[in-house]
Structure formats: structure tokens, C-alpha cells
Amino acid sequence: MAAALTVEFAPFAAPAKGVWVVFCDDKRVLGPAAGRLLRSSAELIRRAAAADHFTGKKGSTLEILAPPELKISRLIVIGIGNARKMTAHDFVKLGGSAVGKIPHSAKEATIFAELPSGALKPEQAADLALGARLRAYRFDRYKTKRKEDEERPALAKLTIAVANKTALRATWRDHQAVADGVLIARDLVNEPPNVLFPEEFARRANKLKNIGVKVQVLDERAMKKLGMNALLGVGQGSAHGSRLVVMHWKGAKTDAPPIAFIGKGVCFDTGGISIKPAANMEDMKGDMAGAACVVGLMHALAARKAKINAVGAIGLVENMPDGKAQRPGDIVKSMSGQTIEIINTDAEGRLVLADVLHYVNTRFKPRFMIDLATLTGAIIVALGHEYAGLFSNDDQLSDRLAEAGRQTGERVWRMPLGEEYDKKIDSKFADMKNTGGRDAASITAAQLLQRFVDKTPWAHLDIAGTGMSSPQSDINKSWGSGFGVRLLDRLVSEYYEK
After folding, report:
1. pTM of the predicted model, to two decimals?
2. Same structural domain, 344 and 483
3. Is 17 known to be catalytic?
4. Which of 61, 196, 213, 346 fits a 20 to 30 Å CA distance from 374?
């Protein structure tokens, strides 16, 4: 994992050096601890605010360099607007925003975790720290030289000042586990494809053994024996062998059926024989963002010792146009016995998922299955980069995912499924064809997946717009967002551990 920001907690006290960040509302009222400690600087702050027309409006910032009577190099006051309207996700964003205001040259900083009404609760302070860690992430391990305008942030230590750091210990342990899971997922998505091919991806996932996750890696021979010809067909043109990685976390005391998460792991997607245009093809290193999320999620669940039995399964392939590659017109027999006519070799993710979904469903008989995949460009046309597409055969699971999305800011929007769309993927020569054309392309892809889940509650998240080349935000400045880790961890903690 890329070098992560060190976050520490300490009691409220004026920092001896570095940058000091405090919050105020739209009446320019500081938190009580900051107000007491800054009493001697109150007139300076008032005059600076007047000169800068700073009102404490949400997102506004007031900076005072080397304030007299304080040993710090800079005081930053961030406006939060109406504090009574803040949600849990607002505290995460506030932590990210605060780190974003700290100058790149600063090595140390202290953030006061309080509002005008008083100190933040442990959950809120942990959310603040979570946002700070997510914002501080950067992926620059392959840069050996820097331009003058590419200053590397020097911040190595961030102190969050709180009322009671002991009360935060367990809460922060859980939040830190989730933060680490997100950063693991981001690292995987950001890696170049010559580094992260299927075998290497499997090796990295295997490291989860170090925190108590049981990991099984199936090679091509094992998958051939299982009849996973849909998955294997996608990777048969690559010099790199395909892999299936199955991860088990057993956190429940009983042998209750697990919950299951499945990820599409196309480590690079040329489109195969139906080759993609050259423009932006380099982005296809991120076509494994679904698998990256599953690995990050399994880390989070294990690291925080989630009281649940969970299975994570990722199909890892590389889609290349070799002489051995799959052709349009080929027919493959999936592990389920259903046959699929290949119309377009660039509709490959659904072939990978079809076999993995069937394998997980029949092998583990899970309570529900959720798959994540950068599956279709069509979902970006429909929803842009702000929402992931949600397709499901279960209303309760859909509602819970939507609520978890609202709480974490990783939002999903439910899309339709229906028998009418099945006609578009009917084949003259096989049980189905792997694409139904441009119209309703995201829906027909989901319709195909649904044929491999039987009656198990299931949800499909199309994260093509949110998992890679994702929009920049207060908590993400990375090309790979790690989307889905916080969403699914919240789903689990909110509804399935209690």
C-alpha cells in the first residue's frame, strides 16, 4: 500500500508547531476549546475575517500566517455553515477538506475535532480522521523526477485533538480498517497493467492471510476442471494465466451461511479481437476495479473483526487479441451448463462474472450475493460519474444498499430489470449471446448475469463511472477511487452484524 498519513489523537491543547486547523459556523463562532486557547488572538482573527470577507460560510477558509502569541506557522479557520445540518458523511468530507487546506510544505498539523456546540462525538471524530486519511492518499511510486509545480506534500503526522482519546480507540480501529481497505483498492486500480497482471493480483490478494482471511487461488487447470469455460475463454489470448481467488472471513460464531461479494478483475482489457479504439485504452488497466473493491472490503472486514461470515471471489483475466484469443461467433459452455454465443469479445466482464457467480452460489449457498464490475460504458451515459448503477432481484437488499450509499456518499441508483430485455440477448445458436447491442446495454448485461444467480438475493453494481477515472472530491484526488469499500462495509455493519 502507498505510504499513508499517520493519524494520532491527543487532548485539546494549543499545538507547539506546525499548522492548526479549527472550525467555525456561519456566525464565526469557534468551538469552546479553540475559543479559549485563541482568546488572545480573537481581535486578530476578527480583523482578518473582516478584511477577507470571511463569514464562516460552508467551505470558506481564513488563513493567518505566523499568528503572534502562537508558536504555530499558520492558523486555518474553516467555515462549516449551519453545524446543525451536518451528517456523518459531512464529517468525512470535512476531514478531507481540512487536509486539502494544509500547505504542501507543512510537515505537521493539528485539527481540532469540535464544533461551536462542543467536542465531536467519537464516531464523528473518527469520521473526520477517516476523511483526512483518504484525502492524503497519493499514488506516485513510479515518479523519479518532479516538475517545479509538482510539489510532494510533506505532511507526515496529523494530530486530531479530541475530548477523550480513550473513548475513540475502538471506533478508530474500525474506521482505520475501512480506510486501509479503500487505500488497498486504490493502489490496485492505479497500478500499471505490466505490473498488476492476474498472477500478481492473486499474489497480492493472498496477503490477506496475514490478517486471518483464508485465501484459495485456483489456476487455469483447476478452473477447467470446474467447467469455467466462460471465464477461461476471456483470458485464453493472454500470455498471463487467469486466476480465481476465493477469500473467506469467518467472524461469526456459528456456521451461518456467508454473505458473498464478487468482483470483475479484468487486469487489462484491449477488447480482444473486437479491439477497442486506441484513444484512452490505457484506462483499461482499471477494468479490475470491482475485484479491487472486493479485496479492500475483505481487508476491512477482517481488520475490524466483523461479526459476520463473508466470502469474496474475484475472477482475474487479461483480455488480449492473440492468435489463440476468443473470436466473435465462438460458443462457450459456462460452469452452470448454459451456453453463450460470443458476439463481441469486448463484452467480456459478464462472461467472467457468470462463472464466478455460479461457483459462489452453488459452492457456498450465500445469504445474498453482490457483484461489482466496471461493466458498461452505457452506465456512464445514464448516470455519469456520480452514481453507480444498481440492478437487483431483491427489494430489501436494494433498499439497504441505497441507504448505505446515502450514508457514505458512495451512491447507487436502481435501474430496471425485466423479461422484455431478455429477448435482446436470445441467441439463434446458444442459450444466450453475450451482448444485446447498444440499446439498454447496461440492463441487458445485468439480465445475463441474473441467469447465473438462480433465486439467491443478488445485486449487481455497475461501477464503470465511479471505480476508475473517478470525479475528484474532498476525500479523493486519486484516479482510482476505491469505490464500494465504504459502501459495502456500511451495508454489512448496519444490517448484517447486529
Report:
1. 0.96
2. yes
3. no
4. 213
